[in-house]
């Protein structure tokens, strides 16, 4: 399993509540999808319940990520067209 630190990312929000993370992604992204906990982005497992928001803005992917002992974050992975296509196909 991959580690989030092995992927280039930018922190857009840290320490947010689930509602704040959802609202941030809804506001900032052109497309928003919801996946279940266990979904993987570049091999990194997303933790959470049945509705983890993932947003697409251009070629960037923004998503809610739980860092153990640190809380909720919104991360942005630039140039993630491969993951965007995987997400779109999974949601069909």
Can you put this structure into words, describing what you see?
Helices cover 23% and strands 40% of the residues. It is an alpha+beta fold and 92 residues long. The protein has one domain. The strands form two sheets. The protein has a five-stranded antiparallel beta sheet with strand order 1-7-6-5-2, with helices on both faces. It has a two-stranded antiparallel ribbon with strand order 3-4. It is globular, with a radius of gyration of 12 Å. The mean pLDDT is 93.
Report mean pLDDT, rounded to a whole number.
Answer: 93
Order of helices and strands: EHEEEEEEH
Based on CA atoms alone, the radius of gyration comes out at: 12 Å
Number of strands: 7
Oligomer: single chain
- Major β-sheet strand ordering: 1-7-6-5-2
Low-confidence stretches: none
Helical/strand content category: alpha+beta
Summarize the main sheet: 5 strands, antiparallel
Number of domains: 1
Helix content: 10-25%
Protein name: DUF1894 domain-containing protein
Pfam family, one: DUF1894
Keywords:
single chain; 92 residues; alpha+beta; five-stranded antiparallel sheet; 2 helices; 23% helix; 40% strand; globular
Concise synopsis of the structure shown:
The chain has one domain (4-90). Helices cover 23% and strands 40% of the residues.
Write the layout of secondary structure elements.
Layout: E1 10-16, H1 18-28, E2 31-35, E3 40-41, E4 44-45, E5 52-57, E6 60-67, E7 71-77, H2 81-90
Antiparallel strand pairs: 1-7, 2-5, 3-4, 5-6, 6-7
Pfam families: DUF1894
Organism: Methanococcoides methylutens MM1
Protein name: DUF1894 domain-containing protein
């Amino acid at each position: 399993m991959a580690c989030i630190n092995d992927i280039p990312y930018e922190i857009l929000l840290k320490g947010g509540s689930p509602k704040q993370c959802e609202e941030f992604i809804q506001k900032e992204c052109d497309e928003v999808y919801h996946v279940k906990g266990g979904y993987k982005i570049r091999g990194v497992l997303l933790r959470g319940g049945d509705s983890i928001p993932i947003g697409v803005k251009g070629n960037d992917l923004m998503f809610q990520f739980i860092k153990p002992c640190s809380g909720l974050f919104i991360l942005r992975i630039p140039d993630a067209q491969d993951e965007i296509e995987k997400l779109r196909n999974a949601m069909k």
